[in-house]
Specification:
60s Ribosomal Protein L30, Chain: A; globular; 28% helix
């Protein structure tokens, strides 16, 4: 039986130059970062929420707040925690849509696909990533933040 999970997340851009910009588990060489208690990896947060919609265990929130208080700010660990609740379900595909004016995603998409595939234990060909500026119609398209939607397909 196929199961579909839906997740989304958004974060404001921060002009903090002391924090690394990490999106999809990949470091971007920019002079700004993303606001958040963790590394702010908006892509991995959206995937984590999609997993949570499959398992009915909300990981982002109380669980990740406790992890953050214990010094765990790497969003890869949050996604792995969400995946630990999957039971006999197996991820078969993830589709990710990013809306943002900055940074430029095209040069990093292949690397992001590989990192995400590794965490989900699927082949990179099963990680689809698209990015758009949305023609600048929203705050994300104007460069003030990043919005991500993730759709996860699983088999039971």
């Amino acid at each position: 039986m196929s199961i579909v999970g839906l997740g989304q997340d958004s974060h404001r851009i921060s002009e903090d130059k002391n924090k690394e910009l990490i999106i999809g588990g990949v470091k971007f060489d920019e002079d700004y970062s993303i606001e958040g208690n963790s590394d702010g990896d908006v892509v991995l947060h959206a995937i984590t929420n999609a997993v949570s919609s499959v398992t009915a265990v909300n990981v982002l929130g109380k669980i990740t707040d406790e992890m953050c208080q214990n010094g765990i700010t790497d969003s890869r660990e949050y996604l792995k925690k969400a995946l630990s609740y999957m039971g006999d379900k197996k991820v078969t595909h993830v589709a990710i849509s990013i809306e943002a004016k900055r940074p430029k995603f095209a040069p990093k998409i292949e690397e992001m696909r590989k990192v995400i595939a590794d965490i989900l234990k699927i082949e990179p060909v099963h990680v689809g990533i698209t990015a758009t500026t949305g023609e600048g119609l929203t705050e994300f398209g104007k460069g003030n933040g990043i919005f991500v939607t993730a759709i996860l397909t699983c088999e039971e």
